[in-house]
Specification:
2 domains; 66% helix; Histidine-containing Protein, Chain: A; 177 residues; alpha+beta
Amino acid sequence: MSPLAHAAHTVQLAAVAAGASVGGAAIEYLLDPDRGHARRVRLRDGLRSRSRALIAEKERSAFRAFHHALDPRVGELRRSVAHLRGQSERYDDVTLAQKVRSEALGRLDKDLRGRVSVDATSGVVNLRGEIDSEHDRSIIAAAVARVEGVERVVNLLHASGEDAPNKSAVRHLHEAS
């Protein structure tokens, strides 16, 4: 056996020994005759509680994703009710852009959210950036359109490797002339 193989084997044995020691200590801790039962019950209850919380969060997340990303009628209904109540939907540009970032883009994964730039002017929201697919482009635009205060969305998002819509239009004009 080479010295390198011998060293690797020694490290593996040490890892197994350390794992066995930790496992043995855990078993001794949980099977202690005086307090083992209470510790096992506390461990079981904690695991059940955490699993219920994770399941509930996944259910809430799926529910929100359905209502906010796939059903455009939710935003339309909210705007209709606000209009009937006489509530103002006007926000200043900075507030509207922040509202779009938190309500519409806040549900996206962090990587995708970081690639979308948002600015607003008088209720018109401009979206710029490079995203993964055309499907993401339409879902993001629909989610932004449902945010209260958004009157129109200018969607300049584009899939990776493609020209931005505003740049491709200019390129076509230069090629035509």
